[in-house]
Structures are given as structure tokens and as C-alpha cells.
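## retry 2 of 3
previous attempt timed out at serialization; input unchanged, resubmitting
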Amino acid sequence: MRFVRNRFVTFPIASLLLLLLAGCSTKDTFEQPLPVPDIDATVEFKRVWTMSVGKGHDDQFLHLAPLYAGDVIYAASADGLLVAVEPENGKARWQRRSKDRIFAGIGGDNSQLYYITRNAELVALSRETSEEIWRSPLPTEGLAAPQSNGALVVAQTTDGRVIGFDARDGERRWQYDGQVPVLAMRTAAAPLVGGDVVIASFANGRVIALTADAGQPIWQYEVGQPQGRTELERLVDIGGQPLVLDSAIMVAGYQGKLALIDIRSGQEIWSRRASSFYAPSIGAGNIFLASANGDIVAFRGNDRRELWQQNRLSWRQLTQPVVVGEHLVTGDFEGYLHALSLSDGSLQGQMKFDSDGIRVPVQIIEGGNLLIYGNGGRMAVFTLKTKK
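## retry succeeded, writing output
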């Protein structure tokens, strides 16, 4: 993980309770990661197709997750390659080589795609042709993929600003200035954009709901409260987009808590202490969370009691776990994929995917297949099969 200090200066950091020196690799960690565990695999990852998307994150600490839009997958690389491919076979519908260095994306709606450049510009493209439609300046860089409801596009910058733009022409409609601490993790919590409300997460541990038409605050909820003497001890970042569950959202924060919040009022429905960079996943009526130290924990959905804990992947900088049938799948900083049993957390499958690591979560696409994007630019679709 990396940190941002005084809004603009970045320092390399690679795990969670970590303080690193300038010049360290993104694979250096303060806590020693456990080695890849030896397992007796009962499931295996079967490749459907694979391709290369430019240089991927190009050795930058970015979170360029593909956008799965049902009938097409859109992906971008830091060095400016954008592609639209068919989920079934990876066949390209179009490919665009931009002169932009891309820092955040891809977001989209029914007609357009959005990304943020290294030069702090929000860019809109046609989904159909990849033609550029408009671009608008941002006050500083953004790491979270822009989000849109079709009429409004929302971008969130690393200095805590949330900005709404008109999707038709890129005209700025409103801006909300959130507070950010002196030291913050270089994370990418994309806002949620609905028809009437925008929900944004901040490095100060707060989730805030804004009106979509004017960006006015409706409610705020504190996921984590800074404590301790040092700036490192006081970190309470929310690094993942909240999980929407009907009329509520579930959110987790670093050195904070896991909480379910009423989306209309911001009132807490329940909470329990937790520390994570990502929102949890839901499956079989239970809650699954990748803790900040790399342990994966399962909680019973009806009372949040702990069911099991898997600690054989500690400090391996796991991605947000996703539920696939009877399994949970996560990636790690060395580029391994791990499949765990939903029932007891046992490790049941493993595969090396990208030697540059995996930072963005695996996505589930049609048919229960897995869409995976590695830091080095390898993108692929796999199925998880019982080993014969």
C-alpha cells in the first residue's frame, strides 16, 4: 500500500501497518508476508481466454480495474491503451491508443466511458466507437474510477474533493470539499452514484451522502475515528467502494469497523470492530472480509459471529475476496490467485497469474466466470472447476 502526505507527495508502502523508505519497491513490506502455502488442491482455474492490455499499471500504484458491462469488457492501461473486448472469447471490438497517461478508470454508463489522466483531466469517450467526446480539468489527480448515472459523472480527487459533471458536455455542476488527514493511504474508493444521491468515502474515515443535483450533504457516518500519537497510528482510510444491499450499504475501514448503514438516513443498523481496505463480500447468507493483515474472516450474516478465519495468507496484500459458487477467490501481491471454501475457509485452489502482482479485485461475469486483471497488464477470463 502507498501513502499520500500533504495531499500531493507519495511514499512507497506495501502492506498495512507499514512505514517504508522512499525508493522501496511496491513488493517491500514492513511485516513479512507468509510464503505461498502448500495445499492439496481440489479445484483448479481453467483458462477461457487471455490477452495483454498495454503495460497494465506500468509499475505505478494504480487501481485500473476493467469495467464489465454485460455484453462487453472495457479495460485501460496506465500507458494509454484502451480496449473493448467480448466476454466470451476476448475478441476486440475496438482498440484505442491514447496519448494520455491514465491514472483512474474505467467508469461508464449506457453511452460513455470515463477515465482520469495523470494531468488531472476527466475524459469522456463513446462506448461504441471510443471517440473522445469531452474532457474537463480536475483540481488534482484522482485514483478512483469516475462513476456515472447517465446524467451526472462524479470524480473524486486525492485531496478530498468530490466533483459532479454534466455527462453530456463535461460542464462542472458542483463540488464538495471533504477533509483529508495529513497522511493518507493511496487508495481508490470510487463513489456510488444514484439517481438522487452520491455516496463518497474519505481518508478521514467518514462516509458522506450528497444530493446528486447540487452536491449538498445529507448525512455522514464515521467508520473509523483517528486515535494514537503518530499520523500512522491515526490512519482510518476507507479504501473500497461500499457494498449496496437493497436500502443499505455495508462498509469497512482501516483501523475502524465493519458496518451496515441505512442508505436514506445514514443511521447505523449494526457494526463490529474490523480493519480492512475493502468492503466485504456476501454469500450463502454470510459475510466475508479480507482483514488488513491478510487474514480472511467469515461472519454469520444474522448475528455477525465469527465462523472461521484463514490466516495462511497473512500480509500477502490480498484483494477484496469475491464469492464464486461455493468458493471465495482472492488475489495477492505476488500475482497468485487463491480459492477458499465458503464453509470453512480451507485453501482449495491456487494459481500464479501475473508476476507483477494483482491489485484490483477479481470480478464475476456471466456464467460465473472470473475476470482477472494483473498489474502487468495481463487480462483473462477463467472458470473454477473441480479437480479430477
